Automatic annotation (TrEMBL):
Domain RNase H type-1: 1-138
E.C. code: 3.1.26.4
GO-annotated biological processes: DNA replication, removal of RNA primer
Record organism: Cryobacterium flavum
Domain of life: Bacteria
Cited CDD domains: RNase_HI_prokaryote_like (cd09278)
Cofactor binding remark: Binds 1 Mg(2+) ion per subunit. May bind a second metal ion at a regulatory site, or after substrate binding.
Protein name: Ribonuclease H
GO CC entries: cytoplasm
Lineage: Bacteria, Bacillati, Actinomycetota, Actinomycetes, Micrococcales
Length: 264
């Protein structure tokens, strides 16, 4: 079986607010961006995230791309650059080195091929990726959250470990009153929850004083809430779910906790 996906980047100003996206269909796509980057960086990032999102799938991958720079970099030039210590024929350093090294690692052992498609001529997959990449760039330009997309369909169901071996994300409160998020193995208390009970809520009245500043309050961080209204949330995640959560938070330029709060 072959997975066919389009990867595209967008930059407003080039460099400027930038976005990236890959697209298979409406149930399998992802996007993100930066406040300041180039179009080529967006194109490379889209390819990188596509390979990462499909790393667990043992299928061929056909990447549709409208950037000759990206296609030639990955399929023609990268091997020679590596042999020269990641330098071009004229001895100058290769541009976008970090992204290229990550792509080189991500494609190792994969079965793939690239196909050039002309951009902005109505190719359905390319247009869908372009629309999402530009949408991410515009979101960063306006200082708004960028839609991250659902990721690759079925990714979270692959090799999901039992609850006791899952990664856990625990949202609590530090002694300074600032929210904290820790990750690691699930505690014995969390391991008792069934797969259907991914969220648990415990009163914090035994853990903190009578008054506490609640950063989730819509009226702002200075609002004082009674401890009876405060809860600790524990979210049990598979390794793949945790990876996707980290990626989506990074794509929006926020912390994991800020991303989770934004979903409430």
């Amino acid at each position: 079986m072959t997975i066919t996906a389009a990867a595209d980047g967008s930059a407003l100003g080039n460099p400027g607010p930038a976005g990236w996206a890959w697209y298979v269909d409406d149930s399998s796509w992802a996007a993100g961006g930066w406040k300041h980057a180039t179009n080529n960086q967006g194109e490379l990032k889209a390819v990188l995230e596509l390979f990462r999102a499909t790393a667990h799938i043992d299928d061929d991958l056909l990447v549709l791309c409208d950037s000759q720079y990206v296609i030639n970099s990955v399929t023609k030039w990268m091997k020679g650059w590596k042999a020269k210590g990641w330098r071009k024929g004229d001895g100058k350093p290769v541009m976008n080195l970090d992204l290229l090294k990550e792509i080189d690692e991500a494609i190792a052992g994969r079965r793939y091929r690239f196909e050039w498609v002309k951009g902005h001529v109505g190719h359905p997959l390319n247009e869908a990726a372009d629309e999402r990449a530009r949408g991410a760039a515009e979101a960063f330009q306006r200082g708004r959250p960028a839609p991250a997309g659902p990721g690759f369909a079925g990714a979270a169901a692959v090799a999901e470990p039992v609850v006791g071996a899952r990664a856990a994300a625990s949202v609590g409160q530090s002694g300074t009153g600032a929210p904290t998020l820790t990750s690691g193995r699930v505690t014995e208390r969390a391991a008792a929850y069934s797969h259907d009970e991914l969220f648990s809520f415990d009163d914090l009245r035994d853990d903190i004083g009578e008054d506490h500043r609640d950063l989730t309050d819509p009226h702002g961080p200075d609002a004082i809430r009674s401890t009876s209204e405060l809860h600790r949330v524990m979210l049990s995640l598979s390794a793949e779910e945790h990876r996707r959560l980290v990626q989506r938070a990074a794509a929006r330029g926020v912390t994991i906790e800020e991303y989770l709060r934004g979903q409430i």
